[in-house]
Protein: Carbohydrate esterase family 4 protein
Organism: Dacryopinax primogenitus
Amino acid sequence: MLATTVIDDASPWGTGEANVFSSCVVENMVALTFDDGPYIYEQDILNTLNAAGIKGTFFVNGNNWGCIYDQWQSLQDAYWGGHQIGSHTWDHPDLTTLSWDQIDQEFSSVEQAIQKIVGAQPAFFRPPYGSYNDEVLQIAANHGMNVILWDLDSGDSTGEPVWYSEQQYDAVAASHPNTVLALNHETYDTTAYQVLPYAIQKLRDAGYTFGTVAECVGGLEAYQWTSQPGTWDDSWHC
């Protein structure tokens, strides 16, 4: 699915709701994003991005396809390699079905894990399924987060075949909107090994530049603060 507008439900921070971006704002820039990890294909995705000189954005869960602490090395490799790490909740629920306290815990739990593993507090959040309401935006603001959606969906998470995902990138390269904010998932081997290399080549041939989400929405800070990562202890488990 493809759209080319920015949804700016964004209210100024003082009103208590997070900014919402569904598109990049920097002319001619693509942001490649990857949800639902960290997972076993993350390192190979990193290798592909690094070989192409591209920085991606990874919206990670705490305990979805696997436990975040089991893939801590690839998450550190992503962070120290200049890729952006964002929040995608602890275990990927539809936040609009939860209570205030449950939503808040989904934010806090994954943030604590990210802080332990890479020593940073993300400033960007993607709601599972793209589903949010006023409460989610208020809690996101309380956690200092910008909310990120997308305007190109590769379709991998809904079971679409490789040819379909490639077709989405073909379409955007042909229509050449000003910017592209692409949703992919790092939990599929077809995305890691087939769709991603294809997309990079197709978009590069179309003349786009590549950046992280923080860069593509206007050069905002990717993290609220950074520090040293924690030291492994018995709390590093799901």
